[in-house]
Design brief:
heterodimer, A: about 180 residues, alpha/beta, Rossmann fold, 5-stranded parallel beta sheet, two-stranded parallel ribbon, 6 helices, 7 strands, globular, B: about 775 residues, Substrate Binding Domain Of Dnak, Chain:A, Domain 2, 7-stranded parallel beta sheet, 6-stranded parallel beta sheet, 29 helices, 22 strands
Chain lengths: ~180, ~775
């Protein structure tokens, strides 16, 4: 999906540079494992539950635990995380964390330096895609990835649009399993 | 030498235009400012609140050199980079907004001068002496007549020309300078809006110097369908007021139902309490498709561009009343009235009629002729269930919905006989119609939602215009000291994540004794929720500009009265001269007036310029999640930015540490995040310990209510001394501060940015 077309023939989603679409959870897991300082940014869409009653936030917590990734809680998500027994490393709103990530000299949420991979999960797609565009254009020092059920054209790596939630959940479970393999 | 001569010639001309010889106040440093005159103030603001860009796409496609790829640090063929291109877009959006309001003002002014002459006196009643705080501050003119308002508008139009020029390819090369120009355009917008609303109040006799304006019926259930129904839509009330006049003159006011959409509805109800408000822009397509309106009259701005097609489909007659939107229709302005009526009734033709009197007469006659034949009714639940059975829940509607609703889920629930989900979705729907357009099975989603909408009615208070000087005198001290915790201005359009959010925000802050002011579609949405006793916020709270008041100021153009109120606090309460003295006014507002704008559903370019105008005046604005599509925010980074100010009393620069206010233009994803942010953005460096403790009490309690247990992560930045800690959280906050090694610091006596950047304004100018 990344642009291989001639420059004068643009794609309609971003113009030139659009996200690489990844459908294989093992490939996604490898990308995460390769990162030196990943960060998981969680948003309020994770407060909803699956048809089976599982809180979506639990997927985020499982991913973070499996890959040892610090979490940034946006909007009102911190409350739910605390309820589930996890205190996030930091709580910024989505535009605030993106604003900090833009700065290559930012200390990062663990004070170990800025992050090299930022995974967004649960941010509404219009706001999320605009924020990813900010990072695409003004943070060349990092890559971005999304875990939501929609395609995010401005990310570096994105999942496709899932028509069935079950398929998306299957992907997330596959990702967790692949991350756990490397533990 | 030639340059000096040119400057003094220009100044002489300006002094002539603003009648500088009339000594109501000394003329300040920037009467009728041009692009560079307030640039230093903008640059100072942006030093702390840097522009944050979120480009829609990687390209620029403005000229024939392109399309140019601006990704990965590339520049376009003209040399522009991605940040500067975004700022250029922002300026163009702000110019569109500013032009819309100023041209609206220009049209109204022309109409009223034609009717009353240029010497008609401006009189806003016994409680308003500072009638035009924006015009006085920016232009330096004290307008006494309609003719004086023209002087202000001529200045605005001249500046718009220069600003628009700068957006041409191969001009400005700095994002910051484009931003400064956007701030300039948006400041001018508040002048244009003020001209428009003052002219309307004077010319149409709208309420003024009164708080307790009538309570108006809201919702299409309030419309008496047994009568001929005329729908007015848009923003410019020239036609709708003449329509009301015509009905009154012919004793028809009780026989013909007049209802409105968007700001024209607000304007019309300021003129006649018998008129009804259908709702905000998000209800336009729904209502048009009911076919209940016998005649639809459009004027300008935020009217659907497919109104002729939708009207024709619904069987409504249609008249375009202003040159801004003529829809390709035949211009019948010079035709005989009876001939137009005949062709509209017999041939179902639509016309543009630019003479308000003729348009009004035609509308009434056509409505009365065709209403008896009208057979439109709401869809029944039984019919909706049958219509919904065509839905296969393929999710195409969800893919195009700006709010990402599972509309197919709602429709399939209807097919099973349950309307709960679709009712919820109707409340959240922005009414764009994309879902229905995309549906491969042609499910009439809007008709099905009409059933969900039912015929519920609500209440809205009629817009009251400017905040009174007497009110400013009462609240000036408590606002600047912080004991009234803030002014929350909820403004703008109806592109909400959820319409209920507005009423919830009003309720939350009014009960906490903030002053809540509203305009435009937000003012309607506030009334569209009832409590358990069936009351709306307008019925529950005082209409006064005072602690716990809920005040409908009016339509979009009435936003100038909100910025005007902030200026009046500096001028009337603090006795700082305002004439041509913008920097001092803005500095006062930024540092001392705890106000926060909320444009939760902003969608339009007008909303962009209104908000950016507030930003230049030092008022932070919280935006809803869609507003990330405006491409630019103004954000600080609280731990790293420069929070130094000049203490004007001690004449020394002090590092306050506190980010107050933290941001100038900020997007929140959810109402839950917005609530504590709104409280936080009302914190000012000038707060007394008592005022700060009250503000922090609300910030902490809203955080606990909406975000979660514990304390806000940045609470230490806002506690200067122990006395700032609210009593109810004393123990918890003290323990936290001790844990992180917090040290007390002295509050600043008289905080100002003047003196911290190069400006011609002396520090003395901020001391009252």
């Amino acid at each position: 999906m990344s642009a291989v077309i001639p420059r004068h023939r643009v794609n309609v989603l971003t113009g030139i540079k659009s996200a690489r679409l990844v459908e294989d959870p093992a490939e996604y897991a490898d990308l995460i494992k390769k990162a030196k300082r990943p960060l998981l940014v969680v948003g309020p869409l994770l407060l909803a539950s699956t048809a089976e009653g599982k809180v979506l936030m639990q997927y985020a917590l499982d991913i973070a635990k499996a890959a040892n990734i610090p979490i940034c809680a946006t909007a009102q998500t911190r409350g739910k995380m605390v309820e589930l027994g996890v205190e996030p490393q930091c709580a910024y709103d989505v535009v605030e964390i993106i604003n900090a990530l833009k700065d290559p000299n930012w200390h990062g949420v663990k004070k170990e330096g800025n992050h090299d991979l930022v995974i967004f999960f649960g941010i509404r797609s219009d706001l999320g895609n605009q924020g990813l565009s900010t990072l695409k254009h003004f943070a060349p020092h990092l890559k971005t990835m999304t875990l939501c059920k929609y395609y995010f054209p401005h990310a570096s790596y994105s999942l496709p649009n899932f028509k069935k939630d079950a398929k998306w959940q299957e992907f997330l479970e596959g990702l967790i399993a692949n991350l756990q393999k490397g533990e | 030498m030639a340059q000096v001569k040119e400057i003094s010639r220009k100044l002489e001309e300006i002094h002539k235009k603003i009648k500088a010889e009339i000594p109501w106040e000394p003329v300040g440093p920037t009467p009728m400012p041009e692009i560079p005159d307030l640039r230093q103030w903008d640059m100072r603001l942006m030093k702390t609140y840097a522009p944050f860009y979120a480009p829609f796409c990687d390209l620029c496609c403005f000229c024939t050199y392109g399309k140019c790829d601006l990704s990965e640090g590339r520049r376009g063929a003209c040399g522009i980079d991605i940040a500067t291109q975004q700022a250029r877009f922002v300026l163009m959006a702000c110019l569109m907004g500013c032009s819309a309001h100023a041209a609206h003002g220009g049209h109204i002014l022309e109409f009223l001068i034609e009717r009353y002459g240029p010497d008609k006196k401006i009189d806003l009643g016994t409680s308003i002496d500072v009638e035009a705080p924006n015009i006085r501050t920016v232009v330096g003119l004290k307008p006494e007549t309609l003719g004086d308002l023209q002087i202000a508008l001529e200045y605005v139009f001249k500046e718009i020309g220069h600003l628009l020029d700068s957006t041409h390819t191969g001009q400005e090369g700095s994002a910051l300078d484009y931003e400064s120009k956007a701030l300039h355009a948006s400041m001018l917008d508040h002048v244009g809006m003020e001209v428009a609303d003052i002219a309307q109040i004077v010319g149409f006799g709208y309420p003024t110097s009164v708080a307790d304006t009538p309570i108006i019926e809201l919702g299409w259930g309030a419309i008496d369908k047994t009568k001929p129904v005329i729908l007015v839509s848009g923003h410019n009330p020239a036609t709708s007021t003449v329509l009301i006049d015509y009905l009154r003159e012919h004793n028809l006011e009780d026989q013909v139902e007049v209802c409105g959409l968007c700001c024209t509805a607000l304007e019309t109800t300021r003129y006649s309490s018998k008129a009804k408000i259908v709702g905000p822009l998000s209800r336009a397509l729904f209502f048009m498709r009911t076919g209940v309106a016998d005649v639809i009259m459009t004027d300008e701005q935020c009217i659907r561009t497919d109104t002729p097609q939708e009207a024709a489909k619904a069987g409504s007659a249609m008249i375009a009343c202003l040159d801004k939107a003529m829809y390709g229709l035949e211009n019948a302005t010079d035709y005989e009235t009876d001939e137009i009526v005949r062709r509209m009734v017999d041939n179902k033709e639509q016309f543009a009629i630019l003479d308000p009197a003729k348009a009004a007469e035609v509308a009434v006659k056509v409505a009365m002729r065709i209403a008896p034949e009208r057979k439109k009714e709401w869809v029944t639940e039984e019919q909706a269930i049958e219509l919904a059975k065509k839905c296969t829940n393929c999710k195409m509607c969800e893919q195009v919905c700006p709010n990402l609703f599972n509309i197919g889920g709602g429709v399939t629930e209807v097919a099973k006989g349950s309307f709960d989900l679709i009712r919820r979705q109707f409340l959240q729907c922005i009414g764009c119609g994309k879902c229905e357009q995309e549906c491969p099975n042609n499910v009439p989603i809007f008709k099905i939602m009409q059933t969900a909408a039912g015929t519920e009615t609500w209440k809205c208070r009629a817009g009251r215009g400017p905040v009174m000087d007497t009110e400013i005198r009462n609240v000036g001290a408590p606002i600047t000291l912080g004991t009234i915790p803030g002014v929350i201005a909820i403004v703008g359009c109806s592109n909400y994540p959820d319409m209920d959010d507005i009423a919830d925000m009003v309720e939350e802050f009014a009960k906490r004794k903030y002053i809540v002011v509203l305009t435009g579609c937000a003012a309607m949405a506030a009334g569209m929720k009832k409590d358990k006793d069936g009351l709306t916020v307008y019925e529950k709270y005082s209409p006064s500009f005072d602690a716990g008041g809920v005040v409908n100021i009016g339509s979009c153009v009435a936003n100038a009265h909100i910025s005007g109120a902030a200026i009046k606090i500096a001028n009337i309460f603090a006795a700082l001269p305002l004439r041509g003295n913008y920097e001092v006014m803005a500095d006062y507002v930024l540092n001392r007036v705890g106000a926060c704008g909320v444009a939760w559903g902003a969608y339009s370019q007008k909303a962009a310029s209104i908000g950016t105008g507030f930003n230049r005046l030092g008022v932070p604005v919280v935006l809803g999640p869609h507003s990330s599509k405006y491409r630019r925010l103004y954000l600080s980074r609280k731990e790293d930015d420069d929070w130094r100010v000049m203490d004007a009393r001690k004449r020394e620069i002090v590092d306050t540490v506190e980010p107050a206010p933290e941001h100038l233009a900020y997007v929140c994803e959810t109402k839950e995040k917005a609530m504590p942010m709104m409280a936080k953005l009302c914190i000012r460096r000038n707060d007394t310990p008592q005022g700060r403790a009250i503000k922090l009490n609300h910030y902490i309690s809203l955080y606990k209510k909406y975000i979660g247990p514990g304390l806000p992560e940045d609470i230490h930045l806002f506690v200067r001394r122990d006395a700032d800690i609210p009593l109810v959280y004393k123990k918890e906050v003290r323990a936290h501060l001790q844990q992180i090694g917090w040290q007390p610091r002295e509050p600043v006596g008289l905080p100002t940015l003047i003196g911290t950047y190069p400006t011609k304004v002396p520090v003395d100018a901020v001391i009252h």
